[in-house]
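Changelog-linked ticket: 5-O-phosphono-beta-D-ribofuranosylamine example.
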Amino acid sequence: MVKKKTCIFISGKGSNLKNLILHSRKDNFPINISLVISNNKNASGISFAKKNKIPYVFIDTKIKHYENKILLNLNKYKISFICLAGYMKIISSTLLRYYRKKIINIHPSLLPKFKGLNTFSRILKNKEIKTGCTVHYVNEKLDSGNIIVQKSFFINAKDNEHVLKNKTQKLEHLAFPEAIIKIFRNN
Ligand code: GRF
């Protein structure tokens, strides 16, 4: 199997990055993680790239035309697939022009419910019965592309934001690899 050269975009902790690195080591997993891009110099997730000798780049998303810099790096490492794993920046048409249907994102809610930030507090405030996570394709609209995989659980009356986050992340670590397998099985 020729594995797709993949770049993971992060901004923070990188637990999804860590999980995808583990999966990518399996012979039959369809992607190889060839590059990590972070827009946060201090993202603790960078340590997983370092530990696993995966090239990583810091991109300052506050500068003009930063997406051109991203494109240069994607080109340099011959990247054909992108996973957004806690990347706190909207992908613009500059990247989508070259990577349409090649970028996926993981979001901590059952989309189309609770797009955007602060999902857990809004979920609790809304007295939802169920929540979960969604892996979806990225398009120009925030958290709105076609859904690939969704996983859910029932909310317990005692669950606070912290508990919801932990339960959701456990499901994310199942959903992200499952979505990647699903995409390339259909290709
Ligand atoms: C995840 O909860 C994901 O749903 C959201 O950002 C978080 C990233 O977590 N988009 P981590 O950095 O992978 O631990």
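Closing comment: Example verified and attached. Residues 10, 12-17, 45, 85-86, 106-108, 133, 169, 172 surround 5-O-phosphono-beta-D-ribofuranosylamine (CB under 6 Å). The longest helix spans residues 161-185.
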